[in-house]
């Protein structure tokens, strides 16, 4: 296990980058705690895999350093970093049995055969392949092969870090849940430093202690699932986390009051002068319909999704979503909306603005 330090790290795939826009990974400084489970979350092309490949040693960064327990490994090859990596598509030895595939990393390091047999049996049980150990990998389905890849990544207890690059893409939905549970248990039992790349918020939020949200090559927030939900530091985080995501509404803010198309909304805290594009961020869970109180809205449609209802509405020309309980009465004559003031965030140029009095 290792603390992973990213020091002034950035990367461009261009030979002579001229400016920030030329970098696939914008400058990043952060310590990844020893033994923590992280998820790298973002849309395709945001820089997740670039960062993971730099950590693993498959890619040399254009600038900056990467350290494992304060030791500079920026130019160290992958083999010297003592990591295990599982890729999006399965990488297995087709001519070997499932047993030999799982045993390979241990035998490659000269482990005693009795320990190898015990550990392989444990991992096979974990991934549900105990009855497949004597089968050759050739001819197995893609999801079965990926389970072998996952097992081979988890079989060593002494790795500095376990890196997963969208490993459940080819796994059927039920098995995804099973394997996420097993990965979480593995982390709890052995305390490996784990980094899990995904574009699926459910995978990220259920797996990780902390989620690293990336957007356009930049880390825009690192936080617990609760922090990402309650106080998104960037409008992208609010949009990307949650289903549906956060409502983002153009506004003017003056002290502890906000104005949406001239209508006033009270805020719980005051704000200093704001420049540029100013918006309010309100999650649908903290919006409520009423017949008379609040701001005027037009209901477009109501979607009953079982556990709750999603109301699609329009507020001064802006599309917003409201979530109501399954048993809550909702009708088209409920043409006003109120927001829980304590859960309204203010954004300037997409970044959250701290209210007066909030600790830095």
From TrEMBL:
Gene3D superfamilies with a match to the protein in the record: 2.40.50.100, Nucleic acid-binding proteins (2.40.50.140), P-loop containing nucleotide triphosphate hydrolases (3.40.50.300)
MF term (GO), any: ATP binding
Keyword entries, A-Z: ATP-binding, Cell membrane, Membrane, Nucleotide-binding, Transport
InterPro entries recorded: AAA+_ATPase (IPR003593), ABC_transporter-like_ATP-bd (IPR003439), ABC_transpr_FbpC (IPR015853), ABC_transpr_MalK/UgpC-like (IPR047641), Mo/tungstate-bd_C_term_dom (IPR008995), NA-bd_OB-fold (IPR012340), OB_MalK-like (IPR040582), P-loop_NTPase (IPR027417)
UniProt-listed Pfam families: ABC_tran (PF00005), OB_MalK (PF17912)
Domain spans labelled ABC transporter: 4-241
Protein transport keyword on record: no
Family membership noted in the UniProt record: Belongs to the ABC transporter superfamily.
Protein name listed in UniProt: ABC transporter ATP-binding protein
Organism annotation: Sedimentitalea todarodis
């Amino acid at each position: 296990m290792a603390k992973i330090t990213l020091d002034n790290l950035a990367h461009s795939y261009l030979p002579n980058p001229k400016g920030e826009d030329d970098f696939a990974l914008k400058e990043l400084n952060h310590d990844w705690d020893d033994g923590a489970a992280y998820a790298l979350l973002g849309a395709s092309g945001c820089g997740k895999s670039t960062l993971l490949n730099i950590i693993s040693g498959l890619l040399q960064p254009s600038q900056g350093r990467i350290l494992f327990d304060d030791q500079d490994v920026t130019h160290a090859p992958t083999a010297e970093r003592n990591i295990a990596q599982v890729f999006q598509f399965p990488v297995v030895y087709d001519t070997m049995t499932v047993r030999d595939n799982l045993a390979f990393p241990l035998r490659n390091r000269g482990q005693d055969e009795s320990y190898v047999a015990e550990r392989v049996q444990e991992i096979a049980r974990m991934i549900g392949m105990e009855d497949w150990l004597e089968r050759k990998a050739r001819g197995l389905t893609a999801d079965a092969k990926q389970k072998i890849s996952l097992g081979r990544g988890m079989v060593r207890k002494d790795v500095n870090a376990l890196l997963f690059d969208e490993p459940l893409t080819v796994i059927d939905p039920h098995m995804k849940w099973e394997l996420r549970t097993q990965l979480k248990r593995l982390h709890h039992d052995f305390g490996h430093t784990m980094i899990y790349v995904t574009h699926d918020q459910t995978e990220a939020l259920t797996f990780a202690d902390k989620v690293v949200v990336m957007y356009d090559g930049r880390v825009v927030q690192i936080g617990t699932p609760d922090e990402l939900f309650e106080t998104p530091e960037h409008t992208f985080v609010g949009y990307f986390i949650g289903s549906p995501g956060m409502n983002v509404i153009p506004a003017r803010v003056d002290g502890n009051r906000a104005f949406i198309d001239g209508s006033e909304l009270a805020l719980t805290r005051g704000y200093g002068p704001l420049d540029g594009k100013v918006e309010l961020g309100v999650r649908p869970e903290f919006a409520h319909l009423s017949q008379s109180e609040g701001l005027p809205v037009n209901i477009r449609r109501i979607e009953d999704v079982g556990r709750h209802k999603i109301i699609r509405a329009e507020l001064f020309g802006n599309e917003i979503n409201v979530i109501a309980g399954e048993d809550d009465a909702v009708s088209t004559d409920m043409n006003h909306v109120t927001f829980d003031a304590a859960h309204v965030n203010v954004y300037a140029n997409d970044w959250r603005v701290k209210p007066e009095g909030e600790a830095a």
